């Protein structure tokens, strides 16, 4: 049954240009999606999906035009694709497990996001995600984990590896303080738990003040965050300028760094190996 015949189905699809729903063993390659009304590609309640050589485009000022949205799905691979949108290049939502993102060019847009999770106090989970060999160009964010105050569930076993940034405002973000717009963000007693996150070999330039922002919940601190070989300079259009990007930490425990990590992230304990 199609979207026009079923308003509930239509609402769930969020007017996606191309949707993979309740499917197994799906392969797509060479697809181009331009100026979708909302999400360009939606993958929901599916398993063993492999998508490659995608070309996704939308104006940088177009809201809610996520490139790819993954929810309630397992064993999904997105590879060798270019995504230029007005929202997340890739959004990985509730119920996502064993997700592999490899060789993605993202920008403009809002980067690659885990979440947001836990809106309206519900329980949502994401685990076993690897994002590797991505390049972010003039995006608002780079790699982001985003949760709502008062939520439940977890985001865990997530790896970001061999990633480069050019003119990215916020390259590395964990934000556990999402709340409705124009409202005071209260500190709830519950939170989505974030743990076992690895950042390895992330390099490039930022044109923002805070290059690494780990804003974790005071009620459920982030734990086992590991960083190795991070180098983020202040620069624009490939040129390095004077200036020192900063980092911000809140409620991060049992976490450490190795190799060269710049800017320094003070909440991480120095460790020789991991």
From TrEMBL:
It comes from the Eukaryota. GO terms for molecular function: polygalacturonase activity. Keywords: Cell wall, Cell wall biogenesis/degradation, Glycosidase, Hydrolase, Secreted. Its main location: secreted. SUPFAM superfamilies: Pectin lyase-like. It is found in: Secreted, Cell wall. GO terms for biological process: carbohydrate metabolic process; cell wall organization. Belongs to the glycosyl hydrolase 28 family. This is Polygalacturonase. It comes from Gossypium mustelinum. The lineage of its organism: Eukaryota, Viridiplantae, Streptophyta, Embryophyta, Tracheophyta.
């Amino acid at each position: 049954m199609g979207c026009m015949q079923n308003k509930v189905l239509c609402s769930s699809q969020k007017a996606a240009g191309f949707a993979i729903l309740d499917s197994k063993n799906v392969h797509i390659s060479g697809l181009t999606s331009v100026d979708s009304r909302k999400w360009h590609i939606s993958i929901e309640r599916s398993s063993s999906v492999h998508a490659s050589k995608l070309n996704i485009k939308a104006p940088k000022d177009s809201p809610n035009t996520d490139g790819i949205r993954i929810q309630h799905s397992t064993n999904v691979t997105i590879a060798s694709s270019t995504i230029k949108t007005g929202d997340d290049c890739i959004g990985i939502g509730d119920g996502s497990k064993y997700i592999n993102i490899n060789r993605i060019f993202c920008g403009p847009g809002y980067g690659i996001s885990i979440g947001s999770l836990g809106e309206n106090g519900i329980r949502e989970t994401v685990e076993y995600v690897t994002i590797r060999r991505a390049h972010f160009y003039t995006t608002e964010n780079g790699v982001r984990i985003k949760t709502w105050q008062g939520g439940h569930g977890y985001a865990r076993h997530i790896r970001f590896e061999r990633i480069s940034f050019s003119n990215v405002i916020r390259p590395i973000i964990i934000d556990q303080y999402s709340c409705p717009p124009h409202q005071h963000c209260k500190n709830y007693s519950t939170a989505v738990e974030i743990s076992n996150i690895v950042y390895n070999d992330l390099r490039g330039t930022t044109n923002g003040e805070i290059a690494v922002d780990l804003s974790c919940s005071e009620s459920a601190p982030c734990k086992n965050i590991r960083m190795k070989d991070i180098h983020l300079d202040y620069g624009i259009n490939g040129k390095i300028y004077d200036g020192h990007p900063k980092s911000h930490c809140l409620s991060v425990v049992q976490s450490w760094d190795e190799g060269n990590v710049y800017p320094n992230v003070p909440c991480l304990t120095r460790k020789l190996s991991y």
